[in-house]
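User: Sequence in, structure out. Go.
Assistant: Echoing your sequence, followed by the structure tokens.
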Amino acid sequence: MGVVGRDGFSSVKKNNQKIKFADIAPLRIYYPLRRGDLPYMITTNDLRPGTCFKYDNQLWKITEFQHVKPGKGPAFVRVKQLNLRTGSIVERTYRAGEKVENIRVESRTMSYLYHDGTNYIFMDNENYEQIGVSEALVGDRAGFLLENTNSTVLMHENEILEVTPPIFLEVRVVKTDPGEKGNTATGGTKPATIESGAKISVPLFVNEGEKIKVDTRDGRYIERVKE
């Protein structure tokens, strides 16, 4: 076994003779690898909603997971998985214990600044770096991007995979038909455009210029915001 002497050189004993590594080759120190240093494999038994992995050269995130043990035959895993590059969702069945490549993803909080005609420009709140995200990647979520409001940006090895606006957003109604005062009938709605650009349905009593709270996941009206 190697030891470090007072002269700072590592050495070993061979045939009862002390030999310095410095006499043979430069000393190199190897540190154990951490999981984030190299790709590592997980099995389909490890998959859970939210797990991100690489398969068929594509990056996926599990949205639904079910482990099935049939009466006859081997167990299998049935999932719904989101393609993090295209946004498509597919259903797939894997063999129980089948190996897939785990990937490391990072969520960053970034402030949406503006749209330059081609890309949506965000600023990283930690290092103030500005990045552009394509319209294709942002997709329908663009309708809920409000300037100077934080969004969550999912990244893998400096590749932007997903942009998610805050779940709840307080915005002004910029276009809708005149409100019907006193009409609070349940279920009565009308179309409206909010300042971030999305078109949603609002109750009949809501007027232009009013601020409302919206659920960005489905565009659902929540309530009017008191000012």
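User: And one key feature?
Assistant: Residues 50 and 133 are 22 Å apart (CA to CA).
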